């Protein structure tokens, strides 16, 4: 073969390669590491190079702008050298050291408890199936496509099987190169099974999925091994869309003004960041990730898919869809196997999303005789009440305070977060996750802290500091702060505090949530006493002090055995659908079974909210424990 | 709005338009007609312009090469003007007068007889369904996607309905702009119904499909109105792949050497040419064509989809697929509605294609007690024998002589073709289609002519001219020709003849076909006498003289009432699947019910072929009529 020379700048490295060598390969020969997330499929568009001199050939990519093409930009993975070249590697193309992933240690603790559901038969949503096909003979010369799909149909006991043209095109070659022993990746798209991918040999043990809870404030991702029915790791990050508003409504307004492309892009970036971090840390190739399963509120689901949100925001609050079809993950820019699927779990309405259906699935409210209430505390507080016969839902806009956001020293429940605050020998004490020095306060710590400040009468029932009661109150820029450590004896550089504004955010959040529960029960002619089981879900790590939550008026004062803190039920439920076909079918049915009540505009809700913006409430009888 | 100026060259026309105007619109304002087949969806890539000066914006198109982008080429439909522009319109972009379409008059005659099958309930493969949805209220704020798909499911009585992300994205807007009155286009992809498209208002009466028989030599296309269950028009052209070999095998060899892209491209060009010609002539917009349904031999089906054919050609003759999935027609470059579907009907094996399953469906062999033989005469001759209990098939490589190709004066059965030759008062006479002066001879005329030459002893049983028997035999370049008209008295400028080589091609074709029938029956322990009904299908227009076919030894001498000439059963069967769901389901079942016999390598087939290359045969007893 003819040899050609390629010189890379600014490194000034020249390699000699065969004519027709893909640039991605040439770069690698030069020992230059460039960004390439999709493994050379032209999907991610990261491997941009600038051809300064010489001739190249290859498909033009939609990942390049017109201006870039004019300037000589190419994708390294889609372009081959046909003559001597001088190539510039742009700064942003060089692989950077990865941003350190935030391992979601707290959530990680309770993995295995989540993953195993004895009552279901393990059967992952995406199946990898190894087959040794009969080789064709003149007596049995069934076509390749039918040979494979009929075998898989028989194995899975299904009637039909879809397969895309791209797979069929490569199938004759894959089958013959691998002696008719291949592994088919089979996904479900609604009622239809589809052979998404075919690989040579037996790759059944490489079937990974990422389960994602897309919160308004926090995005949590779990990497699971669908073959072993096991969680491998979990990570989380704040939702970068926060720059366009803390609350869902602000982001929808931004999308209406400026289009939703930017919001979608930010979300996809966060998701790709979590997926690649999880994959890297666990030695899993992106190509072996066959699916991403997402739960979240309906607006987040819309941003994920680039759907218009304007009708969710406006009366009568109509979503574009609450049950989106499974898609190729690549269609929205999620970087897993190029043919991997993105499942958006079904939600209920514009204001009650798939995080809630997943929550119901996880807590099994829908299978119980007893009456349950599920409160999911996030940026929106969602309330579900029901049993096996009926389920109703409503939603309240709470703001992100209880997730540790919109609080000056707030942080997510990860290492260094103050997760509990308590009184010991008359002193206010705290405990951090990982027992390290404090970096901030997470949601459970904030609820504890407000409760303790109220108990110690450092704040009054309106949430204001009572003047001169304590030496740790300081004023900064006109706002009062309570310092958790003595400024002299305590941590010098990282003094954690809560301000009066922070407390106001907490009070508004708890009032919105409490009022939603109260009015929903009123609509049903029920009261809190009727509830047999009270589930509390949310991004608090493993810890939420029920007494503190009652003390601040977030939840009513019921017998403690009725309460159960269930953590992130959105992830738990979504994970069930990843591992068990039965669970997936159930969540699809759930959507139809739930009635949504819109309370936000209701007069009695507004009145109840006004009564609830005190600590714990104007009607103190409801909260015996704190009186 | 800000106004900008656009000057078009070489016309030197300047128009003033609003900033942001698409170039396609600006061109139209300048009253310049450019080529644009897809209606502005960036699908066809015809509307190329060169921006010489000024700024434009818009997506880059994969329809442009890198070199073109560098030179300033843009697609008019995908590009908007953002400043004053100077734009060149390349010669090839200007709309040309359309190549005259060959209207397939002969096939057209028998349309309506084909279209109506009383035993089926009309139910087109693609359905357009107009709905007036309930408008959302707070009590019924079902999401748009679920609102539409649940209504359509109910109307069609199906359990679920797929819808692509692109449709869901635009749905909120379409619904609200049209007061929730829309028409959904619903297609079937295997067992799954899919909403392919949503249009405002009631467009139920605009549901057109094109049915295509892809022959090795001839491509026939019928335009049908699926709403009215009616054929509107038909056209045909020779398959442009002919330049890569007359026979399927030659084309497969070419594809193995040079890749199959070129063969696919030629086929798609022919198909697009027929579709646009039919659409233009009948005032049907390409956007209103919702599906293309193709039948043809398996190799043609592979070329259509760009599938590798190498294993069809080699023992044990395995196709990549004989039952390809329905695809977006745009995925292979067919220009109809951008979301319209391409259905490739299911065939049986590498050498018995969907033209044969369609033929069986059309003749209903599979539903009869009596034993039928279906002979489909094309470039390959396919033979089907069976009844309601069993069906077997085989295939013989005949060459294109009986279709009027590979014959010097050969032509398709269209106006001006000699379609019959007969002896009147001792003279050899002929009749042309449309009773016009002769332009050539089509298949039925060729069979008649050879039979007549034999009867008049102008040729011997080997197909050679008997020397000096007739004054109309002339020798040109060493090859003898028989002139159909007296060179002095007849047509001066267009003398039609048949050469000794032409006759040889006919003899080889008929020998291959006859031998296949004989050996297939032998394998089944049957003979010609066992056949109750003998169907002859093929591209002969409406006319085939059974006596002539017997006389040359193409078919055996059976009682005439057993014969039925059924024309192009590939088109007829395919059209049934377009109009009747039941027919579509039946053809899918048929594939499984048919057993394929490979005869081509068999010793007894070769021996039989040797005996059959005489007129009519060495065993003259088989052909009483001609003896």
Average predicted local confidence, pLDDT of chain A: 87
CATH topology of the domain at 3-93 in chain A: Ubiquitin-like (UB roll)
* Number of helical elements of chain A: 17
Q: Strands of the largest sheet of chain A, in order across it?
A: 14-13-12-15-17-16
Low-pLDDT sequence parts of chain A: 97-116
- Greatest interface (CB-CB under 8 A), with counts per chain: A-B, 59 and 59 residues
Q: Which second-level CATH architecture of the domain at 3-93 in chain A applies?
A: Roll
- At the fourth level of CATH, the homologous superfamily of the domain at 3-93 in chain A is Beta-grasp domain
Query: Termini separation of chain A (Å)?
Result: 87 Å
Instruction: Specify the CATH class of the domain at 3-93 in chain A.
Output: Alpha Beta
Outline the biggest β-sheet of chain A. 6 strands, mixed
Q: Helicity level of chain A, as a percent range?
A: 25-40%
User: Helix- and strand-based class of chain A?
Assistant: alpha/beta
Approximately what portion of the residues of chain A adopt beta-strand conformation? 25-35%
């Amino acid at each position: 073969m003819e040899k050609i020379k390629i010189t890379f700048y600014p490194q000034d490295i020249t390699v000699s390669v065969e004519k027709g060598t893909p640039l991605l390969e040439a770069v690698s020969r030069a020992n230059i590491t460039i960004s390439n997330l999709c493994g050379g499929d032209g999907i991610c568009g990261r491997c941009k190079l600038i051809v300064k001199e010489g001739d190249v050939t290859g498909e033009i990519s939609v990942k390049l702008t017109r201006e870039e093409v004019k300037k000589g930009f190419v994708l390294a993975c889609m372009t081959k050298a046909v003559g001597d070249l001088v190539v510039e590697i742009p700064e942003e193309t060089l692989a950077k050291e990865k941003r350190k992933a935030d391992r979601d240690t707290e959530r990680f603790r309770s993995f295995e408890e989540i993953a195993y559901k004895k009552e279901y038969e393990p059967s992952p949503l995406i199946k990898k199936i190894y087959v040794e096909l009969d080789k064709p003979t003149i007596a049995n010369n069934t076509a390749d496509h039918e040979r494979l799909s009929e075998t898989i149909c028989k194995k899975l006991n299904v009637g039909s099987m879809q397969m895309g043209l791209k797979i069929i095109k490569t199938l004759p070659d894959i089958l013959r190169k691998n002696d008719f022993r291949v592994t088919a990746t089979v996904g479900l798209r609604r009622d239809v099974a589809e052979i998404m991918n075919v690989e040579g040999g037996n790759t059944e043990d490489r079937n990974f999925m990422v389960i994602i809870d897309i919160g308004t404030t926090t995005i949590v991702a779990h990497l699971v091994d669908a073959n072993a029915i096991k969680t491998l790791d979990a990570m989380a990050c704040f939702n970068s869309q926060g720059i366009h508003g803390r609350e869902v409504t602000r982001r929808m307004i931004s999308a209406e003004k400026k289009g939703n492309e930017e919001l979608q892009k930010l979300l996809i970036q966060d998701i790709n960041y979590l997926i690649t971090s999880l994959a890297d840390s666990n030695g899993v190739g992106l190509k072996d990730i066959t699916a991403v399963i997402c739960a979240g509120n309906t607006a987040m689901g819309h941003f994920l898919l680039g759907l218009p949100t304007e009708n969710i925001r406006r009366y009568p609050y109509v979503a574009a869809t609450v049950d989106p079809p499974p898609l190729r993950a690549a269609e929205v820019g999620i970087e897993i196997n190029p043919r991997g699927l993105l499942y958006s779990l079904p939600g209920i309405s514009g204001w009650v999303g798939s995080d809630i259906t997943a929550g119901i699935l996880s807590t099994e409210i829908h299978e119980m005789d007893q009456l349950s209430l599920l409160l999911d505390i996030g940026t929106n507080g969602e309330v579900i009440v029901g049993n096996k016969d009926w389920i109703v839902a409503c939603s309240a806009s709470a703001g992100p305070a209880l997730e540790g956001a919109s609080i000056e020293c707030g942080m997510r429940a990860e290492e260094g977060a103050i997760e509990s605050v308590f009184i010991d020998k008359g002193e206010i004490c705290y405990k951090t996750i990982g027992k390290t020095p404090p970096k901030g306060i997470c949601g459970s710590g904030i609820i504890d802290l407000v409760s303790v400040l109220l108990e110690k009468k450092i704040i009054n029932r309106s949430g204001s500091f009572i003047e001169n009661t304590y030496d740790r109150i300081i004023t900064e820029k006109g706002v009062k702060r309570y310092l958790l450590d003595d400024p002299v004896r305590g941590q010098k550089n990282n003094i954690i505090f809560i301000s009066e504004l922070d407390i106001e955010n907490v009070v508004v959040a708890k009032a919105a949530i409490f009022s939603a529960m109260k009015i929903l029960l009123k609509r049903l002619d029920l009261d809190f006493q009727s509830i047999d089981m009270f589930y509390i879900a949310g991004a608090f790590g493993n810890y939420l002090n029920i007494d503190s939550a009652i003390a601040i008026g977030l939840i009513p004062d019921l017998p403690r055995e009725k309460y159960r803190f269930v953590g992130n039920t959105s992830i738990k439920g979504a994970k069930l659908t990843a591992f068990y076909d039965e669970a997936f079918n159930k969540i699809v049915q759930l959507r139809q079974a739930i009635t949504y009540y819109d309370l936000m505009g209701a007069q009695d809700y507004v009145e109840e909210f006004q009564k609830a913006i005190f600590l714990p409430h104007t009607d103190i009888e409801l909260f015996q424990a704190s009186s």
